Amino acid sequence: MAGITLAEIATKLGAELRGDGAVSIESIAGTNQAGQGDITFLSSSKYRKHLAECQASAVILKEADLPYFDGNALVMNDPYLGYARVAQLLDTTPAAASEIAPSAFVADDVVLGEGVAIGHNAVIESGAKIGDHAQIGPGCFVGKNAEIGARTKIWANVSIYHNVVLGSDCLVQSGTVIGADGFGYANDKGEWVKIPQLGTVRIGSRVEIGACTTIDRGALEDTIIEDNVIIDNQMQIAHNVQIGYGTAMAGGTIVAGSTKIGKYCIIGGASVLNGHIEIADGVTITGMGMVMRSIEEKGMYSSGIPLQPNKEWRKTAARTMKIDEMNKRLKAVEKKLDENS
Predict the structure, then answer these.
(1) What are the residue numbers of the active site?
(2) What protein family does this chain belong to (predicted)?
(3) Which of 4, 114, 155, 243 has CB 3.0 to 4.6 Å from 174, enough for a Cys bridge?
């Protein structure tokens, strides 16, 4: 893309400009790799030692770090947020689709908004509604009566089942499946009897969903994801789960059925959440957390055993297996002490 002046960037970011506002910025790079035409950022003062050798045309930094850099600068309280905003301005990611491809199948009664783009070999089934300027990538499937909001971008080979509702300004990465059947079965003397999943998935606006993630439809009620949620790659969101506004979930996490996650939660990668529990607003679960019970108060929660050398881990595991025996012995000692006191 064509360059943008540093003054224009400062205006769009609401940053304080120090230096030459006419300098042209063409791309963004790391502090050590940046050169002429690049802008970079410094979000942590512990890396300010790199500023003396930085060759970038401009740096986004805090006021406290300004004396350590004598070049062009944009001063912000949160340089990392500035980096995110600049990355959006300089984004060169192509469209998922740029027109309605001749090989795409679009049912006669599909409602298409203005400027909709549909890639090659995509299938849009009867009754679907696609909002203005939405992009549906090659090989996607949009089922009967599904709704895709305005400006939502869906990358290649995404499957969106019947009746699923996806809001505006969403982003769905390749390989994701939204609205597949939840894991619902009854058992008749050893034979599994499938329970049809009659709910759907309702996703709000400004939701981002990573690659190869699955979000199951509800059994009776709907699976619900509220606005401004980000969901990483390769995750499993089971039937009837609810995820509150502004929650962020890292890759590999599994959420079992009917769990309700509050607003502004942060869930670390490879975490596992049991079914039919509730997570309060503002909860942070660190990576590989195993959540077996409801969490009723906001705060940070962790579980699991950190990595150890194998010999030490074997000792830890052996001792863990003896916890019940140790507990019984401790109670016996306490009982004797009580009798002798």
Answers:
(1) 239
(2) Belongs to the transferase hexapeptide repeat family. LpxD subfamily.
(3) 155
